[in-house]
Amino acid sequence: MELQLAAVLGSLALGGAVLVLFFGQWWQPLADTDRRVKELAEAVDALLRQRAEVLAHHDPSSASDPVRAWLRRVQEAQDEMASIKERHDGGQEQLYVVRLAQHLFLPAGSPVAEQQLKAARALREQGAAILEAALATPQEPPPLLCDPEDLEGLPDEAAGPATRAHLNEALRFLGDSDAALGVWGAGGVGKTTVLKLVRELCGRVARFDHVLLVAAAKDCTVGKLQREVVSVLGLRDAPTEQAQAAGILGFLRDKSFLLLLDGVWERLDLEGVGIPQPLGMANGKVRKVIVASRSEAVCADMGCRSKIKMECLNEEDAWRLFEANVGGDVVHGHTQIPTLARQVAAECKGLPLALVTVGRAMSNKRTPGEWADALDTLKASQLPSVPASDKSTHALVKFCYDNLESDTVRECFVTCALWPEDHNISKDELVQSWVGLGLLLGLGDIDEAHRFGHSVVATLVAARLLEPGDNHRYNMFPSDTLVRLHDVVRDAALRLVPGKWLVRAGAGLREPPREEALWRGAERVSLMHNSIEDAPAKAGSAIAEAAAQPASLMLQCNRALPKRMLQAIQHFTRLTYLDLEDTGIQDAFPMEICCLVNLEYLNLSKNRILSLPMELGNLSQLKYFYLRDNYYIQITIPPGLISRLGKLRVLEVFTASIVSIADDYVSPVIDDLESISGGARVESLGIWLDSIRDVERLARLAPGVRARSLHLRKLLDVRALPLLSAERTPELGGVQESLRELVVYSSDVEEIVADAHIPRLEVIKFGFLTKLRVMAWSHAATSSLREVAMGACHSLTHLTWVQHLPCLESLNLSGCNGLTTLLGGAGDGAAAAEEVVVFPRLRLLALLGLPKLETLRVEGECAFPELRRLQTRGCPRLKRIALRPARGQEGTVRIECDKHWWNALQWAGEDVKACFVPVL
């Protein structure tokens, strides 16, 4: 038996040896391929490091032809290596037999890698010669990768030589082989400014599929950072952090990206967020991170080997920045002011944020006495000698706060601190809250209050106490509709509040604070943008035992607010302001709200409420009621409810459905408005309507009732839309005059001729108007439009009116099967063709599912100087983008499209193509 077993084992060994000898000759080429690909990756990595050295001596925009050609070939080598690596790594996952068969019948890999390796080595020799020549010439200051003209329109502190030097260092990092860069320094020295400038200008140095600027802020969690990333990328929310991480990872895994993390306070788990690892060069893709933090140690913990330390400005740079913000005419308007001004500037300790804000505060001080008083005030603050310390910054912010023009503006300013740190706040949302909080009293009507509120926003932006915000959604930066509060300024503002506030906005809370001391005596409470999903009995009893009686409570964007929290709210009998937008209220209306008899402002938007109770009429003081985007397609409003709310000034009731709602839901509202004795006084009304007759009824109620937003649906047997016609102004003029938003869906409209004067119309959306053939708009009807969206308007062939939209920011066309031309049509002549049609503020252009679209314009070019995102899908006939590039537009437009469509595009020139960063 043992002899038989030994014989079998010997046979197996002999057979294995024969197989090894037979297949060994085929294994070696596969091993050679693996080795060659590895050598190629190492050679290209060294080439990228050499490119960084070349960029340190040569500005690509002004370099000689040989240098530019070398840089271009390095980029091509990187792209080719990425392609080879992708094919090779994919093959490694296959079985050996499959790889062997591919080698026998589809020989590829090693010869190609060998050829590219030789090319990479030749490029390194050329690069060494370029560096040798550069070192042989007399040394000059490092060249600026960014021109001063490229910084026009950016914050003033971005224009200084120190900031430009830091920016150039960051841009060079994009071309080297390092994975992470740290930018660190005290609050207010300009770290965020550098990150924004990198985002604006990185297309000049490197190509990324995605550039993500996200704010980490204090108490940043994995979930919060995921929400920021998802918002920037435009991905869908997932139910769990693990699922969200998988979605982010799947989206970014095969893409090159630059992640800009602002305001990092502690090490963040990027892998847990879903950011692909490892960073650096992986699978032929470039993955880079720039971390901005106050701490050098945090940058090191985030893996940053290279770091940029940002410090306060020297005396001369600080003076130039201060003088630029004050204004030369003020500084030199009196012989004594320059000396005093330099002393005031010195009190800012070289901190850019302070130099800008204090400079703006002094821009209207034209006498030596005013400057002397300001200097005395700053000295009396006993500012610390340590530059950029929190105490110093807070004192300087208080100085600017005290110099605001009125108590109203000051209170509006500190109210901005109720929002989370680094949060982008909608101007409309901010002004709406100011109105609801009673900060804009003594004005004639809601429209006047909103106009004044927006002027206050402009005042605070001009004073640099508020900054222009970013539209994080899809990373469409910047945005004229958003503002943000610098974290340093926000901290100072919370110290300036006139009473006691409890502010834990965006702090990642899972339950409300339990400490009685926090609630006791708090006049305003902000727990918005958290994840409060539990309110233990101890928390509820703590609130009750503290006898908490806040006047305002902000809970919006807690998407699973527990019932126990609502039960606690009913005891807040002094409450006048309550925001419960997007808090997960399901089905039944929370009856606890009906106990709040002093309530003046109530926001229940973005919930799932089936009906309004008659008990809501108990809120006899209610002035502002918002129920927008209610997720249910039906909502019942009992007759007589609106008439009981005698002080109501704003009423907005919408469902989220665009097609179907309860047929009779609107009738009780209009009936009540007509029946109110003495005439209704609803100054801002938003509502769905089913007939032109309802529009006429509203028009007869004007000016007491002003329709701000109308959604018209299922208009049958209506050939033309009378609401926009000048002929119908006698009957409909009351609605035309006040209208801001018009939405028309699922109707038989064939013509939309807008010749009426509609001075405030800002948003129009048309959907499922399958018979629409003609659209003609006058300048009077389009001069203020910011957003236009059209979907499933199949009979429409072209648009001629969009070129008359100076304020247009977003144009979205989808499913219009008959559309052949975006601009033009009958009437375009030779003279018109020579003229460049400019869209001065357009940031988003979406062209989706337009199978017959052939050109953006019949003849001539268009200019989109502010375009940030272009979506093109389902447009097979569109072969050319008639774009006139703007200065500095290179690499700033993200274009989302099909790879084959992108490769087949015909370009008028390389300068046009260079504007776009394709996401394929």
Describe the structure in your own words.
The chain is an alpha/beta fold. Among the domains are: 21-136; 150-309, Rossmann fold (3-Layer(aba) Sandwich), CATH 3.40.50; 404-498, Arc Repressor Mutant, subunit A (Orthogonal Bundle); 786-920. Helix content is 39%, strand content 16%. It is built from 31 helices and 34 strands. The protein has a 17-stranded parallel sheet. Strands 1, 2, 3, 4, 5 and 6 form a six-stranded mixed sheet that branches. The protein has a three-stranded antiparallel sheet with strand order 7-9-8. The longest helix is centred in the N-terminal third of the chain and has 54 residues, at 2-55. The model is unreliable at 18-22, 102-109, 138-142 and 825-831 (pLDDT under 50).
Supply the CATH superfamily name of the domain at 150-309.
P-loop containing nucleotide triphosphate hydrolases
Rg (C-alpha, Å): 32 Å
The CATH topology of the domain at 150-309 is given as Rossmann fold
How far apart the termini lie comes to 67 Å
* Secondary-structure arrangement, i.e. CATH architecture of the domain at 150-309: 3-Layer(aba) Sandwich
Low-confidence stretches: 18-22, 102-109, 138-142, 825-831
* Total of helices: 31
**Major beta-sheet overview:** 17 strands, parallel
Total number of strands: 34
